[in-house]
Amino acid sequence: MYTKDHDRMVEEKCYTLKHMEKVLEKIADNFPLYFDNYLKSQKSNIPEESIDKLRDRFMVDSNGKHLVFDEKRAFQELTKEAIIDFNKDVDGYRELFDKDSLEEYKDDPQEFKSRALKIETTIIRKTIQNKYAKELDKFRAAFNKASSYELLKVVTRLADFSENYATKKYDRIEFEKILNYKDFGFSVLDTEDYTAHGVIGGGIKSTMLYKNYPDIFPCRSRMSLWALWYLVDKDTFDCSMDSEFLMIDIDKNFTQQNYFYPYELFAFYALQIYLLIKKEAIRLEVNLDTSYRFVYVEAFLNFVANQHIAAINELSTRYKEDAYV
To answer: How far apart are CA 247 and CA 4, in angstroms?
Structure first.
């Protein structure tokens, strides 16, 4: 997508069934190779001192003879690591959406901004503290200028929406049967009421939702959109604005993830990727905890993007632009 068209988020054709079927076909074609490499990546994470104990489960025996790779064990360890990583900072996000806390902050919204968001919300704290990344200066300036009252209102709306969705709409079984992006009911999340421009955009709000309800809301991160671009093998599907997953600035010669990408479309593709992962889990006889549904997806998409990290950095740093929303 070219930056001059950013107000459209994506082309209209990207919402059509025919287009989405083409995207899914490409993802399905490329998924096996990436997933195979994802499993094999676990071998490199084994401490050197443990290799001898695990030779029979991985690649070679004491004589250097190749053995069958234990895919099941690798997948079990990858899913375990993904959950551990997810839980490292989850408490701050859960506290952020706590109804009683949000109610109390109405008496002191500045405290909400300076403590709950700036210090206790990991994604915002790390962005503000990353002084070496000058391209994030715009975010820091926007955060400093943002109304604490407006930030509190947006987060409260996100908390209310997610809780209502989880308690009144979400069904663990039926959720995985969704075949139309509209059926998620996520379109409202891309509206003004759920956005604080320059501060709480698609990436940050999806992270907040994801950390509170990882079974319902996927994390529309920078790396996940780059991963989708690679999973479709960079195919534009004849879109006039190039890839729907990227933003391309021809004048400034740089490419960035499409941080205007519609959340409901992203959720649709994220769910389909989860179903591909689930299919592999069944094959390997590995049980997946559905309460961490999109944690598995996020870990896999991060792996896909990191396979191309040098190229991504090259494309996105030719001209520095904001990647925080």
So the answer is: 9
Which amino acid is it at 206?
Answer: S
Chain position carrying tokens 């190229």: 311
HSE-up of residue 70 (Cα within 13 Å, Cβ side):
13
Q: Taking the model in full, what pTM does it have?
A: 0.89
**HSE (CB half, 13 Å, CA atoms) of 285?**
2
**Beta strands 254-257; 246-249: pairing state:** antiparallel
Per DSSP, 2 falls in state: B
Query: What 3 state SS string does the chain have?
Result: CEHHHHHHCCCHHHHCHHHHHHHHHHHHHHHHHHHHHHHHHHHHHCCHHHHHHHHHHCCECCCCCECCCCHHHHHHHHHHHHHHHHHCCHHHHHHHCCHHHHHHHCCCHHHHHHHHHCCCCHHHHHHHHCCCCHHHHHHHHHHHHCCHHHHHHHHHHHHHHHHHHHHHHCCHHHHCCCCCHHHHCCHHHHCHHHCECCCECHHHHHHHHHHHCCCCCCCCCHHHHHHHHHHCCCCCCCCCCCCCCEEEECCCCEEEECCCCCHHHHHHHHHHHHHHHHHHHHHHCCCCCHHHHHHHHHHHHHHHHHCCHHHHHHHHHCCCCCCCC
pLDDT in tens, 207-258: 999 999 999 999 999 999 999 999 999 999 999 888 999 988 766 667 888 9
The whole-angstrom separation of Cα 85 and Cα 291 is 15
Token pair for 145: 């200028």
The pLDDT score that the predictor gives to residue 259 is 85
